[in-house]
Amino acid sequence: MRQIVLYITTSLDGYIASKDGSIDWLFTDQDYGYGDFICSVDTVLMGRKSYEQILGFDGVFPYLGKQVKVFSRHPLPRPETVVGAEVDIEFVNQDIVELVQSLKQLEIQSTATSGAVGTGNIWLLGGSNMLRQFVEQDLIDEYRIFIHPLILGEGIPLFETGHYQKQLQLIDSQSYSSGMVELRYRAAR
């Protein structure tokens, strides 16, 4: 069965973005396993604020060939496309549990953009409000958290205050020459 994977970077003091939502403090000096990870994913889930931030990046929409689901109460602008490439974006405003169950059970389907949906993992990209809902409903199968060697002092927290307590099992860790550390956890169920 497909897995929901949280793949995210946080500052040492637990923030995923500066107070204004910027992530310009993130390292871009090496891949940190992102290339292999993105190849293992065919679906990306994100909140409205994360989507709007990605639209503000220069260049081509980074998730061409992936099915992208944006949690939003209202339709948002679609990104510019490149010749011959379609962007498979759906704006969803439905129960998170129902959506995740349907995505995990999805049969392999041919699509114009990626060839097959339902063969790879599902990336929970962010933001913190959506993440809180996924944690509260125990929908995340694997947590891949990169800890950046930087203290921001304030910002958008990785985990918002909520009604949850989750036990996780460490399955791997890796440190990088930059001081970045990756921690991989599996949900203890």
- By DSSP, the count of extended strands is 10
- Figure out the total of helices: 4
Main sheet strand line-up? 5-4-3-6-1-7-10-9
Query: Would you identify the regions where 5 or more consecutive residues have pLDDT less than 50?
Result: 108-115
User: What is the name of the CATH superfamily?
Assistant: Dihydrofolate Reductase, subunit A
CATH topology: Dihydrofolate Reductase, subunit A
Gyration radius, in Å: 16 Å
Strand content: 25-35%
| Portion of residues within helices | 10-25%
- Which CATH architecture is right? 3-Layer(aba) Sandwich
The first-to-last residue Cα distance is 15 Å
Total domain modules: 1
> Which H/E pattern describes the elements?
EEHEHEEHEHEEEE
Which structural class best describes the helix and strand composition? alpha/beta
Main β-sheet: number of strands, strand sense, barrel status? 8 strands, mixed
Look at the structure and give the mean pLDDT: 86
Q: What is the C-level CATH assignment? A: Alpha Beta
Form type: globular
Secondary structure elements and their pairing?
Layout: E1 4-11, E2 15-17, H1 34-39, E3 41-47, H2 48-55, E4 67-71, E5 88-92, H3 96-105, E6 121-126, H4 128-136, E7 142-148, E8 156-157, E9 168-175, E10 181-187
Parallel strand pairs: 1-6, 1-7, 3-4, 3-6, 4-5
Antiparallel strand pairs: 2-8, 7-10, 9-10
